[in-house]
Amino acid sequence: MRRAAASVLLAVLLVPGCTCASDSVNRGDLNLVSLDDEWSLGRDLAAEVDAQVRPLPDPVVQGYVDRLGEALVAQTEMADRDWTFTVLDDPAVNAFALPGGHVYVHAGLIAAAGGPDELASVVAHEVAHGVARHSTERMVKAQGVSWVAGLVLGDNPGLVRQVAAGLVGRGALARFSRSDEAEADRLGLDYLAAAGYDPDGQAAMFETLVALRARRPLRFERWFQSHPLGEDRVEAAEAAAEALPSPPPRPDEDAAFEDVQRRVRPFVSSR
């Protein structure tokens, strides 16, 4: 069935001038990869990535990020799909998403965040990339139809390993366009507020990253390569947050985040 689906994908994409409708949940550009194929591809890529990275060996930290991610996904139209959130034992300040609902958060990002709302804003942004299906859109545009069909078919394990190695090395499946990043910011902000986090956390996280980059540029290199951050993006986040309600104080959430951050810092500072 998987081979048949990928063959249909390749045939449809090769039809000149095809205007076939994409899945209704896709808020981005035209995407002819079915959701089931995208989630299947995501499982293949995640298996390869997981073989090349080291998860953070702290169940409390992982549990916190799982709960945070689940709360954000619950605000999306893909809440019925399987999602995974993995904390990596990596001091780099970064996060990335695979197709099919796989989000990876580096320990360095947790250590750098100024609070739970800032961390949640990054996770919400990556979830938004997944909901808008930006990765498969970019893959078709950057690599071509046959290349993506080969990935979906799964007949070339070397190709899957190659993509996974790039993910681990660069922390991004494909460099998203400015419009993709803007859409992920907008959607992520909606998810953030709907899940009960402060929407000001998005702009605050941007400002935190800019300030920290000036002090330790190498640790932030991967983030800024895959997440270009200009003043206009910060201003857009600030303006959008003004239209959204701020949550009441959450001392329990703040305390839980501070505990998680204390647990993460030894892994980051020792590297």
From TrEMBL:
It comes from the Bacteria. InterPro entries: Mito/Outer_Membr_Metalloprot (IPR051156), Peptidase_M48 (IPR001915). Residues 235-259 are annotated as: Disordered. Residues 62-239 form the Peptidase M48 domain. Residues 1-21 form the signal peptide. It holds the Pfam family Peptidase_M48. Binds 1 zinc ion per subunit. Keywords: Hydrolase, Metal-binding, Metalloprotease, Protease, Signal, Zinc. Its cofactor is Zn(2+). Belongs to the peptidase M48 family. This is M48 family metallopeptidase. It comes from Rubrivirga litoralis.
